[in-house]
Structure formats: structure tokens, C-alpha cells
């Protein structure tokens, strides 16, 4: 061969490689599936289902469910109903069954499953171009969908449907693929992006779902431009989009600004799109972005729960827990990435295996018994994108049953936030003891206001009187103004956990003009008594006189009080006219004399609880039940005790919550139904707060160092009743009689 021929051959070879490289670049996302599940995952799953185990069991269960569905006619109805109505639920069920059928097709390689998804997508492709916005669209402030009443549900539909399309793509003819892409997937993606820029560019969970759906569609349809706008917003300015949402919606610790309920909800688009980005563009290092905030967010979501249910702050449905599908996906991806066997403990409780490569890893590890106990911690999660807009504090103990105290000196939480700065909740033996109402909503129950948030969500659930925090002059914090509330957050003064328990303090001076509020909460362990108590000190200071109300919402049956009650047994009236007071029946009232005021109730967990309050004779105790001015019976009939002082510039509310005793109706015995606390006193020595608790057989001194400069290594000596003590850090307890810590 001549030199010229060799050169010519080399030139054509180089040209061929260049053309191939260009084609590969232009079709960077050509392999299918290429989102959460890859072709490599599929090979492993196909092998796995030939062997016994959890993964095979789940595969058989899903396949049986899909077989039942594909034996029935395909139904793609014209949208008509709001959330919870037939057409809403039918379209929701359709995207779920398409997703499942796509998985079964990939694993089984049986064409009937792909054909079912194809045929349903073609039905949607015929319907979608004919649709206007949904006839039951929500209020004007909410962008409507076409298939659903709000575009949020449309984005959820796309997140699932694009994965289903990705899974069956290899089985499609060119004509079918073109029809589905041109008449369905592209119009939906454009409707959710350029069609609704205010939502798509919004830093909010609605924006997260929209960007995830459009970005994943970009990967599947080989439209890199869609991926870019999903990441950086429609103008690719970086002021919105998925990455901005990761920056602004999460604190550096992974706490989501809207609270646990919406953190759970948003986790699915975050981790699903994140996994798709990792599989398609690993160089972006999406799970390493912002110091691994996405991975931290998964762990934080789990931490924001007690006994399998999320802490119900802000607009929360109280029945939502760690077994929700969003967190199942998140835990699956977290274990697949890290191999942390603590996640297996949560996966075991969830008892749901995801049919994916990561799901296979979880199933195999559980089959081998590799799960270790998940480490639920006492922790303060900083709020806001910088972690400096207050915090959500969780205190935990496991003496004589698992307890958790939730303290909320957190940011407002956008439109889903409640006006409840410095509120708290308490849990014990698996139950809610000191409670929060959560959201006034019957999710997807169309008969109850179309499944939307009820009017009482605004008139009661969001109002400050619905929460366990101080209300000034019967007006809600920030006068119920969300925009103003979002601009101000409490300051967490300190948080510490040690062998004596946990303690936190926070304050805010912007909830009311001219009023400073600060609260200290401590969950203290008393090993000699084998129990835990909660200490609550709430200070309110103003230059003007005000009325101060401090509610305590309790779950259980009222047992007794150590002061007489003036009960209203024939007629009831509402406690007030607005700001939530109009929904509270005043059932009884009293003004205990100076000393200790005790209220005891029995929870369904069989344990008694006594709230012992230190009073000066100037506090009224108002016993209320929810349900006034509620003609449609939308509200639960929950009970509260409200401590009230009027015409005061400053006031200090001091109380101790004491779990005690046992009631066993099955075996017909009752133990320890009476509070053991006989005396509570509080004193201060400069920055030290000293609380004495007399339980009769043993007397405790609890010391808290509130100094700004104190930390876990700070040691301070002090004298109390002519005895010397030493305190290291923020919190310590001492048995007074023998001066031993």
C-alpha cells in the first residue's frame, strides 16, 4: 500500500471517528432505560428474579398487580374532578400502573407489558392536545393543570410517566414513539415549563416537581436544552431551577424550609431527578453538590419522625410517616449510594422493596440480615438556606419508654408555615402527648371541600392559638401575615445534649411589636426514678401592658386538677371572635391560688401525665374544646388548657411535664395515677437557671447555664443552699440530699 493510500485511509478513519463522536454527543442519552434504572441494573434484576428472596417476592407481587390491571380495558377519562374525585384518581392510578408495567416489561422481557403502556400513552396522546385547563382548577393564585386541577399533579404525572416511557422505549415502533413524544410528552413538558414560568422558576416544592419532570424528559427525549433549563431556570440564569432549589430550600444540614411533611413530599423528585443526573452526567456530582446536601436531606427526613410518623408541624397530615413511597425511594437510593446499614433498619420497617438496581441492593442486604439500628439523635437542625434562620430542635430519651420533645424556634416555612414561633410537642410510649393540630384538610376526600385545605386551615390551624405558644392580645404572630413572617425567624440561643438530657433556648422579638418572647425547654433524665421530665420556662417582656395566653393541647382523657373548676355544663360560648379563638368552646375556667397548679390526663398509651405549673395567683386557667363556629364539623374536637394573664407587661410561665403511673384496663389495675411532684421552685444566679423538683423520696436540682459564651466544655462553680456545685456545659442534674451529680 502506498503512503498516499495509507494517509487517505487514516484520514477517512479519523473522519469516521469524528462523525461517531459527534453522533454520540448529539445522542448522549440514547441508551434506555437511562433515568433511575440503567441497562446494567436491568441485567442484575433479571438474574435476581430467578432466585428466592425479597426482591423476587416484590417482583411477583407487582407483576400480579399489573397483570390484574392490564386484563381490564384502558381508561383515560376526560378530566372532570378535583383532588380525590374519580378522574383525578384514575389519572393518578394510570401513571402508577404505567410505571409498574414498564418495570415488569424490563425484567420479564414480555412484550404485553410494553404494549399496555404504549397503548395507554397513545390514548393520552390523543386526549392531551384537546384539553384546556382543568375545569376544577384551584383558586386563581394556583396554576392549573390540564389532566389535574393543579399543575403540581401534572408534574407528578410526568415524573412517573417519563420513567414508564423510558422503560418501554426499546419496544416502540418509530411511529408510536413519534406520536407519544410529539402529541403528549413534549406538550406536557412545555406546558409545565414555558407554559407556566412562575411555577417552573419558583423555589418551592411545586417547582421541584416541575423541574424534575421536565429535566428527566430531556434525558429520555435527548433534549439537553430541557435538562439545562430544569437545572438553571427558563433563562438559565441560575435564579431558579433544580440547583437553586437545592441551595435555597434546604439548610446546610438538609432541613427543608417547609417542614417535615413537605420535606417528605419533595424528596421523591429531588432524589429521582438526582439519580437521573448521576446516571447521565456523573461529572456534575449532584449528590456531592453543596457539601452533599441531598444525601443529608434523606437522613434529616428520617430524623424528623417519631414512631414512624413525621412531626406534624406546618401544613401536615398527621398520618404521614416514614413508610410513604417518597421516603421508600429516598432510603433505597441512600443505601444504594452509601451502603450504610442503618438505612436498612428503616427499609425493614417500611417493608417495601423498590424494583430498581438500588432496590436490589436493599433486598439482598435485608435477606442477609445486615440491618443495624438506625441512630435517632437529639439534634438541632438549622433552618433557612444558611442554617441561621432559627432551628427545629429534637430532644430524645429512652428511659422507661422512648420520648421525644420537638421545639420549634424555626422559620415560617413559606405559605405552608403556621404562626407558631417557639411552640413545642411531646411524645412518649409511641403516642403524641402534647400535640399540634397540623393541617385542617381531608387529603383527596372530595366530599370535604374537594380534598383541598379547609377554610378552617386559615381560620384556625395556622393561627397561633392553635399551638402551644404564647398569644398576645388574642392576635396571631405577625398578625397572620405570611410575607412578614417569612422575613423574620427566631434565634436559637443554644442547644446541647449530654448525659443529663437535652436543653435548648430561643427568642424572638418580631412576632409582636414591642414584645420579646423567649423560651427554654429541657428534656431531663432522672435515672433514680427511671423517668424523664420536661421543663418549660417561657418569658414574655414588653414595655406596655398586654394579655398573654399560653395554650397546652393534650391528647387523652382529663383526670383531675388540684384546683376547683367553674364548668359550663348547660351552655357554651366561643372563647373569642377571631384569630382562631372563635373555634374554641370555653368549657371551664379557674384561677388557682399561689403555688402549684396541676392538671392530669390519661393517654391511650396507658400512662398518666401531669402538667405542674408554678403560679402566683394571677393566672386564669381556661379549659377549651375545639369545635365552635364549625357548621360542617370540619375540625377535630381537641382539648386544651390555656393559661392567661391580663394587664401585664411581663410574665414568666414555668411548668414541668411529668409522665407517671400506668393504667391497664385489661388486667384491671392502676399504678401511680397521682403526680409525685410536691414542690417546684425556680431561681437565677446571673446566667444560671436553677430549678428544684421535689418528688418526695428524692429531690433534684436542675441547673442550666444560659451564658452566651458557654459551651459543652465550659465549667462553672456555684453555691446553692450552702452547698457547692460544679456545672460543665449547659445542663446538669444533682440529687440535693447527697450533693452527687
UniProtKB/TrEMBL annotation:
A single GO cellular-component term from the record reads: periplasmic space
For this protein, the record's Pfam families field holds: Alginate_lyase, Hepar_II_III_C
Residues in the signal sequence: 1-28
Q: One MF term from GO for this chain?
A: lyase activity
> Which Gene3D superfamilies does the annotation name?
2.70.98.70, Chondroitin AC/alginate lyase
List each copy of the Alginate lyase domain by range: 63-303
Domain Heparinase II/III-like C-terminal residue range list: 384-649
**Top-rank taxon:** Bacteria
Cytoplasm as UniProt keyword:
no
Q: Please give the SUPFAM superfamilies that the UniProt record associates with this protein.
A: Chondroitin AC/alginate lyase
Subcellular location per UniProt equals:
Periplasm
Q: Which UniProt keywords apply?
A: Lyase, Periplasm, Signal
Q: What is this protein called?
A: Alginate lyase
Amino acid at each position: 500500500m502506498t503512503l498516499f493510500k495509507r494517509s487517505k485511509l487514516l484520514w477517512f478513519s479519523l473522519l469516521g471517528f469524528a462523525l461517531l463522536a459527534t453522533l454520540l454527543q448529539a445522542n448522549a442519552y440514547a441508551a434506555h432505560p437511562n433515568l433511575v434504572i440503567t441497562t446494567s441494573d436491568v441485567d442484575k434484576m433479571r438474574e435476581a428474579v430467578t432466585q428466592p428472596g425479597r426482591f423476587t417476592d416484590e417482583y411477583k407481587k407487582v407483576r400480579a398487580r399489573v397483570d390484574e390491571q392490564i386484563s381490564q380495558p384502558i381508561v383515560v377519562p376526560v378530566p372532570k374532578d378535583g383532588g380525590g374525585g374519580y378522574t383525578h384518581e384514575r389519572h393518578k392510578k394510570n401513571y402508577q400502573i404505567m410505571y409498574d408495567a414498564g418495570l415488569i416489561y424490563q425484567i420479564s422481557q414480555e412484550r404485553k407489558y410494553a404494549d399496555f403502556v404504549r397503548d395507554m400513552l397513545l390514548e393520552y396522546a390523543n386526549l392531551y392536545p384537546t384539553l384546556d385547563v382543568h375545569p376544577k382548577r384551584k383558586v386563581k393564585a394556583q396554576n392549573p393543570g390540564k389532566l389535574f386541577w393543579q399543575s403540581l399533579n401534572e408534574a407528578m404525572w410526568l415524573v412517573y410517566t417519563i420513567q414508564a416511557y423510558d422503560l418501554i422505549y426499546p419496544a416502540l415502533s418509530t411511529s408510536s414513539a413519534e406520536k407519544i413524544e410529539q402529541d403528549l410528552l413534549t406538550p406536557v413538558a412545555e406546558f409545565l415549563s414555558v407554559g407556566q414560568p412562575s411555577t417552573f422558576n419558583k423555589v418551592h416544592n411545586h417547582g421541584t416537581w416541575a423541574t424534575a419532570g421536565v429535566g428527566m424528559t430531556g434525558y429520555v427525549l435527548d433534549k439537553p436544552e430541557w435538562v439545562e433549563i430544569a437545572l438553571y431556570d427558563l433563562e438559565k440564569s441560575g435564579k431558579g431551577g433544580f440547583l437553586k432549589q437545592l441551595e435555597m430550600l434546604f439548610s446546610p444540614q438538609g432541613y427543608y424550609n417547609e417542614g417535615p411533611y413537605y420535606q417528605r413530599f419533595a424528596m421523591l423528585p429531588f432524589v429521582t431527578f438526582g439519580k437521573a443526573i448521576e446516571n447521565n452526567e456523573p461529572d456534575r456530582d449532584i449528590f456531592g453538590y453543596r457539601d452533599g446536601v441531598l444525601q443529608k436531606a434523606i437522613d434529616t427526613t428520617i430524623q424528623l419522625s417519631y414512631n414512624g410518623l413525621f412531626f406534624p408541624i406546618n401544613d401536615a397530615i398527621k398520618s404521614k410517616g416514614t413508610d410513604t413511597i417518597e421516603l421508600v425511594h429516598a432510603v433505597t437510593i441512600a443505601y444504594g449510594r452509601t451502603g450504610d446499614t442503618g438505612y436498612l433498619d428503616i427499609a425493614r420497617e417500611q417493608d417495601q422493596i423498590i424494583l430498581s438496581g438500588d432496590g436490589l441492593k436493599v433486598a439482598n442486604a435485608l435477606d442477609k440480615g445486615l440491618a443495624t439500628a438506625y441512630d435517632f439523635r437529639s439534634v438541632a437542625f438549622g433552618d433557612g438556606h444558611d442554617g441561621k434562620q432559627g432551628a427545629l430542635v429534637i430532644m430524645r430519651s429512652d428511659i422507661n419508654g422512648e420520648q421525644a420533645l420537638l421545639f420549634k424556634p424555626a422559620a415560617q416555612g413559606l405559605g405552608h408555615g403556621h404562626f407558631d414561633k417557639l411552640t413545642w410537642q411531646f411524645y412518649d410510649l409511641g403516642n403524641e402527648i402534647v400535640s399540634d393540630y397540623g393541617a385542617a384538610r381531608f387529603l383527596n376526600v372530595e366530599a370535604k371541600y374537594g380534598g383541598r385545605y379547609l377554610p378552617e386551615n386559615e381560620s384556625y390551624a395556622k393561627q397561633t392559638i392553635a399551638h402551644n405558644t404564647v398569644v398576645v392580645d388574642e392576635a396571631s404572630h405577625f398578625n397572620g401575615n405570611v410575607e412578614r413572617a417569612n422575613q423574620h425567624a427566631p434565634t436559637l440561643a443554644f442547644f446541647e445534649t449530654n448525659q443529663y438530657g437535652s436543653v435548648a433556648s430561643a427568642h424572638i422579638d418580631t412576632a409582636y411589636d414591642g414584645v420579646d418572647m423567649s423560651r427554654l425547654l429541657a428534656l431531663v433524665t432522672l435515672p433514680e426514678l427511671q423517668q424523664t421530665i420536661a421543663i418549660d420556662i417561657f418569658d414574655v417582656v414588653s414595655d406596655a401592658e398586654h394579655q398573654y395566653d399560653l395554650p397546652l393541647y393534650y391528647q387523652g382523657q382529663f383526670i383531675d386538677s388540684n384546683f376547683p373548676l367553674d364548668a359550663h355544663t348547660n351552655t357554651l360560648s366561643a372563647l373569642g371572635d377571631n384569630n382562631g379563638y372563635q373555634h374554641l368552646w370555653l368549657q371551664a375556667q379557674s384561677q388557682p391560688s399561689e403555688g402549684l397548679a396541676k392538671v392530669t390526663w390519661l393517654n391511650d398509651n396507658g400512662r398518666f401525665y401531669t402538667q405542674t405549673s408554678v403560679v402566683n395567683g394571677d393566672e386564669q386557667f381556661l379549659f377549651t374544646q375545639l369545635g365552635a363556629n364549625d357548621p360542617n364539623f370540619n375540625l377535630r374536637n381537641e382539648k386544651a388548657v390555656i393559661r392567661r394573664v391580663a394587664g401585664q407587661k411581663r410574665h414568666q410561665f414555668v411548668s414541668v411535664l411529668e409522665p407517671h403511673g400506668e393504667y391497664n384496663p385489661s388486667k384491671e389495675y392502676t399504678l401511680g395515677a397521682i403526680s409525685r411532684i410536691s414542690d417546684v421552685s425556680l431561681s437565677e444566679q446571673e446566667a444560671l437557671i436553677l430549678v428544684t423538683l421535689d418528688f418526695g423520696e428524692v429531690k433534684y436540682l436542675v441547673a442550666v447555664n444560659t451564658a452566651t459564651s458557654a459551651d459543652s466544655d465550659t465549667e462553672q462553680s456555684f453555691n446553692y443552699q450552702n452547698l457547692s456545685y460544679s456545672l460543665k456545659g449547659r445542663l446538669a442534674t444533682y440529687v440535693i440530699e447527697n450533693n452527687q451529680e
